[in-house]
Amino acid sequence: MAIKLLAVGRNMPQWVDQAFHDYxxxxxxxxxxxxxxxxxxVRGKNENIQKVIxxxxxxxxxxxxxxxxxxxxxERGTAWNxxxxxxxxxxxxxxxxxxxxxxxxxxxxxxxxxxQAHQVWSLSPLTLPHPLVRVIIAEQIxxxxxxxxxxxxxxx
Length: 156
Hints:
The protein has one domain: SPOUT methyltransferase, trefoil knot domain (Alpha/beta knot). The chain is 42% helix and 22% strand. It has helices at residues 14-26, 49-63, 82-94, 111-116, 130-148, and strands spanning 2-8, 33-38, 68-79, 98-103, 119-122.
């Protein structure tokens, strides 16, 4: 199973890169997360934000590797608990799927991305800072893996 994390945003603060890579390096090769960063669109004072979101969405859709199942992260999606994420990961691995998780820009994800997604996943009803979402995703995939392998990291 291949896991790609496609995220709008570059030049993250050091703590974001460090935390993301800390969790990502804990995963075994069969659950490795490959981070692909997409340059955000320039946001000017009088910029039409909807057009910015659409342009970022076009970049995202072009960057999704062939034969990958698109899972969009969006607050309007379905919330999964960690056990449900573990079940999804297990099923995707059994089905030999290649997964592409997508994080939109600071103004959200385009409608085109949501429509093309196989599933839309909401991490929380809270609005989370986009840099933090990368860290949460890496940690939750690691935690879900720990559930599947009975690793002591997950204690619930």
